[in-house]
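ping. complex inputs:
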Amino acid sequence: MTTNPSLNPTQAARVPQKPRKVFRRIKVTRVKQLTPHMVRVTFTGDDLAAFAWNGPAAHIKLIFPEDGQSEPSMPDPDGPRPTRIRTYTPRRFDPSAPELDVEFVLHGVGPASNWAAQAQEGQVLVVGGPGRNYEIDRSADWILLVGDDTAIPAISTILEALPATMKAYVILEVSDALEERELNSPAQVDITWLHRGSAQPDIILEQALRNFQLPAGDGRVYVGAEASVMRRMRQYLLKDLGLDASRIITRGYWKVGDTNYPDHDYGTD
Ligand SMILES: Cc1cc2nc3c(=O)[nH]c(=O)nc-3n(C[C@H](O)[C@H](O)[C@H](O)COP(=O)(O)OP(=O)(O)OC[C@H]3O[C@@H](n4cnc5c(N)ncnc54)[C@H](O)[C@@H]3O)c2cc1C
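pong. complex structure:
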């Protein structure tokens, strides 16, 4: 164990230790191709029942095998950080099975996308988390959910957790009509699918947000998108529309050109 050399042993004993992340070995039980570019992988695991599902739009860390490994090593808390670690959304968790679903966008370039494209029953990953989730304000009149393909799992978990009294407006950008899918919610949902085609990611998503007429009443907004576009959308919501920051959550889910984008980019810098 490492100690802070500037503290004497009594002081060091009083310094609160950051809780260590729990990592679990999970095994693929099912793989389902949802659309041409989205695959759902169902995992189970000996100690997965203890996974503490904490609500919608949370995140997990998945560790993928390095070249030559049949399964990833468990991370050593005192060792180097694994390189093939990526952030995903726990899409569905059933503690009785136990089963955890994760939905992967096959964007085609990184280790996570590559792994998902070949996922098969019996393969093993390591999962850590879950991390911070989205708190639904059940007293709000409406919610606006804006995202690209990577945010569809998170937005799906939010939609499923909404009260029936709420009105949900959903704007989603996918590559083409084949990526559209059914989303379930007890709320009254008004969904708009946007097709990116050959346009730069999330540009038409930003345009659709700018064209959206905010309804009357008390609303909330959740945005999950490419980090640079997310920042512009956040500024639009705050400065042009004058929304209070407490009413909006914006998350960068990935960034053009960056690998392993961090899990804590809320665009608040
Ligand atoms: C809180 C949170 C939750 C997330 N949940 C999900 C989820 O449930 N499902 C999901 O599919 N993704 C999700 N993501 C996004 C995912 O973490 C990133 O897409 C990640 O980069 C994928 O890792 P990779 O190894 O495939 O690519 P990386 O090695 O990280 O990146 C390789 C290259 O691919 C580019 N790239 C990454 N993502 C995309 C993309 N979507 N489209 C085009 N190019 C891309 C990068 O810019 C980079 O140039 C989430 C991200 C966050 C922060």
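The chain has two domains: 23-128, 142-254.
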